[in-house]
Amino acid sequence: MCHDKNQIILHYEKSIAFVESLANVTEEQWRTPIEAGKWTVAEVIGHLTPWDEFVLKQRLPFLFTEESLPKGPAVEEMNASASYNSCVQSKEETIANFINQRHQLMNALYPIDDQQWQKSFKIGTSELTLYGYFASLVDHDLLHFSQIQKVLKNVGAIKWISSI
């Protein structure tokens, strides 16, 4: 397997383990904002799921075709909807939804030919590779996971959390 593809899949495997470990936090810790005035741990995890679904259904099938990419969603609306859903769902449901969607996305990466990971494509005026595209998504995950680890450490929950 291509090193680039392997790195992304390894991150997704670790991200699933990290989110699974959040099942060990209390409801109060799960509903703790990552910073004053910011989303809770629940909302941060919950907002990743619709973005994984978007990448799976609205990006991957079109990246190496002659078809135009579907228009991206309204970011603020999608995030607000995900935030709301995370507030009304149980911790278990939010975690299960994340894991299910992340598995689907990860499984869609396996059949992609190794050569495709360095092939250029365009999104709007930006030219990038599949690896570059997914590396930016990994960076986004890592930023949020770091925020979660920091806040959970501050409330004494870090011992239960898998490292990422």
List the SSEs and their pairings:
Blueprint: H1 3-21, H2 27-30, H3 41-59, H4 75-88, H5 91-109, E1 120-123, E2 126-129, H6 130-154
Helix pairs in contact: 1-5, 1-6, 3-4, 3-5
Structural commentary:
By secondary structure, the protein is mostly helical. It has one domain: dinb family like domain (Four Helix Bundle (Hemerythrin (Met), subunit A), Up-down Bundle), CATH 1.20.120. It is built from six helices and two strands; from the N terminus they run αααααββα. It has helices spanning 3-21, 27-30, 41-59, 75-88, 91-109, 130-154, and strands spanning 120-123, 126-129. It has a two-stranded antiparallel sheet with strand order 1-2. β1 (120-123) and β2 (126-129) form a beta hairpin. The longest helix has 25 residues, at 130-154. The two termini are 22 Å apart. The mean pLDDT is 90.
Q: Would you identify the regions where 5 or more consecutive residues have pLDDT less than 50?
A: none
CATH class descriptor name: Mainly Alpha
List the helices and strands in order.
Answer: HHHHHEEH
Number of domains: 1
| Helix-strand makeup class | mainly alpha
> What's the CATH topology name?
Four Helix Bundle (Hemerythrin (Met), subunit A)
β-strand percent reads under 5%
* CATH architecture name: Up-down Bundle
Number of helices: 6
Mean pLDDT: 90
Going across the major beta sheet, what is the strand order?
1-2
The amount of helix comes to: 55-70%
Going by CATH, what is the homologous superfamily? Answer: dinb family like domain
Biggest β-sheet, characterized?
Answer: 2 strands, antiparallel
End-to-end CA span: 22 Å
**Which overall shape is indicated by the principal axes computed on the Cα atoms?**
globular
Total E-strand runs: 2
Radius of gyration: 16 Å
